[in-house]
Amino acid sequence: MPAVSSRAPIKDTTCAAPPMRPAGFIRSPAGDGLTDEYFLNMGPQHPSTHGVLRLVLRLDGENILEVVPHLGYVHRGIEKIGENQTYIQNIHLTDRLDYLSAHSNNLCLCLAMEKALDIGVPERGEYIRVMVCELQRIQSHLLWWGVMGMDMGAITAFLYGFKEREPITNIFEEMCGARLTMNFFRPGGSAMDVPDTFIPRVRGVIAHLKPALDEYHTLLSNNVIFQARTKGIGILPAASALAYGCSGPVLRGSGVNLDLRRHFPYSIYDRFDFDIPLGQAGDCYDRYLIRLEEMAQSLRILEQAAAAFPTGPYRSKEKAQYRLPRGSHYAQVETSRGLFGVYIVADGSAKPYRIKYRSPSFANLMVINELVRGHKLADLVAIISTLDLVIPDMDR
Amino acid sequence: MPQPMPPAAFPVTNFLGDLIRAHFAPPMSDLLNGLLAIMALLAVVALTPICLIWLERKVCAHFQARLGPMRVGWHGLMQPLADGIKLLFKEVLKPEGADTFLFFLAPILPATASFLVLTVIPFDHHFQVTDLDAGVLFVIAASGLNIFGVLLAGWASNNKYSLLGGIRSGAQMLSYEISLALIMLLVVLLSGTASLREIVLTQQGTVLDWWICKFPGFGALAFIMFLISSTAELNRGPFDMVEAESELTGGFTTEYSGISFAMFFLAEFVNMFASAALATTFFLGGFLAPRFGLAALDGLLASVPGVLWFFLKSYGVILCFMWFRWTFPRPRVDQLMALEWKIMLPINLGLLTLGGLFLGLGWIAP
Amino acid sequence: MTTPPVRANSRRNTGPGGHLVQRIFRGVISLAQGLRLTMGYLLHPARVVTQQYPENRATLVLPPRFRARLVMVRDAKGQHHCTACGMCEKACPNGTISVLPGQDGSGKKILGKYIYRLLQCTLCNLCVETCPFGAIAMGQDFELAAYDRQALVLVLHEERQGTSS
Q1: What is the pTM of this model?
Q2: What is the ipTM of this complex?
Q3: Do residues A379 and A56 make contact, with C-beta atoms less than 8 angstroms apart?
Q4: Considering its fold, how many domains does chain C have in total?
Q5: Which residue of A has its CA nearest to C35?
Q6: If you placed Cys at B256, which of B102, B218, B260, C96 could pair as Cys (CB 3.0 to 4.6 Å)?
């Protein structure tokens, strides 16, 4: 029984025909011309939760030839808004960039202000900063691990990751009142002191997380299916990583030893004893293992800091107004994603003339064309997972 | 050949059956028995997804340290009803340019296939719609309709991504069908019969007489191979590229909604039950109560009706399917095909050879 | 500090590698260990971590510093402490607060109207930090959804519910 259409198809004359070749592709058509290439759109709406990133792929069957990312779906003009906010008001905007490293972002802006105005931070304030930033790093990596598992198909991993995040989120809730958009650090220290339950809770987190990390290795790292999906996939040579400006675990996965906490220390990181995990092959599995190992190292830092936690003031004298001197000021921190920088051009008034955020996810994303060469569609998911992108960080 | 067990008494069904048969002339009783059996099976087919949807969601939740549905009924027992009502009320869409006949035929095929497979499975000594002498061959043939349905759905949707998903899924199911058939062939070889009821009867005796144990070591391996192949046949567990690659390709069910989608959904769960039932029949002694050689314990266990043992064992296997799904990440498509053609096929052929060897040397007998 | 970097891939050797049989064996073991881990959660329902909200509203305890919507602090006599100085309005990053002063009988400046636009509030806490009198606080009421925009423009000095809901 043939299918018969009872009416003629409707011709859509309202918009122009779509271009045959989407914009942005630069590579010449692939090889022998025997097979057709086609374009596939991984639209801004994804079932995977990396955020609103649009990738247009050029495919030959299953093999990816080229990827063109389209950004800007979460662009909120934070840098522009920042020109109308005082420096203190800008702090709460940095929460909303890489929301998984909110404390680290706040810290970076405070560091820039302290450098410009020569403000010191008391001991307790420094310890609070280091501990809170390391807790934030662990929390961010836990979410990343859960999402990576979910992207690979082990949906249970997502729930396990979030389960372990909960104690850390509760610490933040008790400390500053918010679970996501913290706005806790201020130039000279933090907005308020940590409650008495802070150190006991941190110790609880340390004790609880060590066996949890072993569970994670059992569930994913040692799993033969997971290893087959990530070993040898998305190999990033060190030279490319440096050329594209990658940072964080993406750069260290390729064997480049650069961690701002060790090589350009800020706050009191130079007092703590911790290792920097490096990769050898630069593939997805290396980047995956590095993040898990970073969690273990962060626990080490937390242990040392909790043991030496001092009493005293948590913030140096608060100023009525913060007017940065004329000129440019820059500070950078190592967030969970990599090198996050704040560049302020100040004109002597209470509001910045221009504030620019150096986004680690933006640089890390740019390397995607190098990584997907020769890989299949399913590998793209693994690669994007291990780049650990947070789209609001890219789009600002 | 083992002695057939005397028929157990089924007072309730005999009573109902007699009541109905009394109203018709004796020559009609065969036809009536057939119809009654089919209706009973339809009831099973209708109730199974309701149980399994609830079980899947609760088991999934508890694997993930949470509770699952708790609000619709006590501990979410009415949740499947709510899901069913929602699906019934959804609009049934047909994409423009889709082949109407094939588009609406496709969901019916997997549902039919699962029903057909269930007709030959022995739920108890005399609880079987029909006991074909070539039951195993019939099962293999009927399972082929599943693949047919998937491919038709992919084609008839008039959607690039449905087609890709359907073809991938079809290729996956075809490949794993081979492994499945080889394992079934192994059991046929060992039992000496292709009738499912006879296969169960060759497993009489103690627990050690079940084919998972009777073929020492390799029986367990064959059982695991059967489970893996079934998981891939069902497009579930770690082999769910179709559902999961929904970021990129929609899978063959993208264009379906409402009752059409519900048919696919229903077929998936009934197929899961059918695969578990087959695993139980081939390896776990079907409806036979486990006997351990201890008189008192055996007496107690044997007093439980065979149907209940059958469902217990099947649901145990279903739990294994759910366990696999919620633990493992999924392999890439080419890794999946490599698993079948390069690893499982040689192993299954080896098992077949070993089975024949053991049988020929007299080390095991049906 | 010149601590040598640690190679992250010590774990690479625990996974499959080596002869085919060895690899298959180790692979199967890794799968079995994963299965054991998840079954551990199924068999111990006490490990469930979720809470049944909204049924557990009565027993929900939020930390004292929890930042939900702004409320006006009242003392035992029901008086608020706002002097309409307007510092919270200046501190607020996006104009959520409007402090309209009024006059009491003797011409002294008091609070006329305190408008709080919940629609815009980012819950950043800057207003509370800036207030010299402790007149406002971020409360504990987080169930703030409404069907009508007007319901989200609040007049705080007219609310009589107390310090935090």
Answers
A1: 0.88
A2: 0.85
A3: no
A4: 2
A5: A219
A6: B260
